[in-house]
């Protein structure tokens, strides 16, 4: 039975059952595959026949995970990588060459910033940053050699948002690739390809897994674009392991129900903290006070599970709050079943200069709260006692 419903697709899409008639997909822990004869081997390596030749290229578990993600995101094809950063690096590496230019949102993950400034800049790729809250400035940054627009929305950790439809129109007008890091929203809350994005990227380590167990990434797009990604990835080797692919595919079965609870809890936390006298600022997409609230409501189903706050009193107050948390974990990760607090200025974004952090709203008092699936009363009680 075919379905267009997210939950059913995520649960019922799986590899063909073997002669053992297993109900749940097995793990295919194999590095290579057997060919029926020399001709089949030749045809597979010549891409004249579909099939598995080596698990660095494909594996039944990674294929199942990719198929699910394509159906959920509205993409034609995809490639799964070992980490989220491997997905970003592979996308940049597949499409950017010496002399190319890229326009990126200023609000990007710290490691993405490092790739742009310390890796691809050494390979002759130039870039300009643009602010998500100033869409009027973006078109002026596009040059004759601009090849790509890259954006996180919502951004990490500033929770800034830009209109995906605006970016889709801009990319089409100038014939450039639009690449969206959709990690914070997941395909359940947002599908960038519907708004004109050519490629959507996820760190599957985050909400796709959702339980802090495995690393993974995925690149989704048209068949033609993903063919270029695969050509680069086959030789650079960022492939996702079959075991992690199996975990991630199984995790997708509960993504919708998990995201519903993450969003419900996060909104309650945001509403509570917005009224707290010790909190200077709260950023959450579905708070009416968010600068891009109307855009978030247009392109996102719900607001996500991340709330970013600024504590009154700077870094000392931020440290006191974090050290006072009893249930929240202090960790650099996010999107776990367990609630997590992170101080971006001294961890995930510590390699940025103070000026660069200020430009994207990361203050010394900024704290990223990844709201988990615990009971909301316990989450709020822990925050309340830590702020006391």
Tell me about this structure.
The protein is of the alpha/beta class and 388 residues long. The protein is built from 15 helices and 12 strands. It has 2 domains: 6-251, 3-Layer(aba) Sandwich (Aspartate Aminotransferase, domain 2); 255-387, Alpha-Beta Complex (Aspartate Aminotransferase, domain 1). The model has no long low-confidence stretch (mean pLDDT 96). Pathway: Amino-acid biosynthesis; L-methionine biosynthesis via de novo pathway; L-homocysteine from O-succinyl-L-homoserine: step 1/1.
Structural descriptors:
388 residues; alpha/beta; Aspartate Aminotransferase, domain 2; five-stranded mixed β-sheet; 15% strand
Class inferred from helices and paired strands: alpha/beta
What does the radius of gyration come to? 21 Å
Major sheet attributes: 7 strands, mixed
How far from one another are the termini? 54 Å
Give the tally of β-strands: 12
Catalytic activity: O-succinyl-L-homoserine + hydrogen sulfide = L-homocysteine + succinate
Cofactor: pyridoxal 5'-phosphate
Keywords: Amino-acid biosynthesis, Methionine biosynthesis, Pyridoxal phosphate, Transferase
Protein name: O-succinylhomoserine sulfhydrylase
Give me a quick take on this structure.
It catalyses: O-succinyl-L-homoserine + hydrogen sulfide = L-homocysteine + succinate. This protein is an alpha/beta fold and 388 residues long.
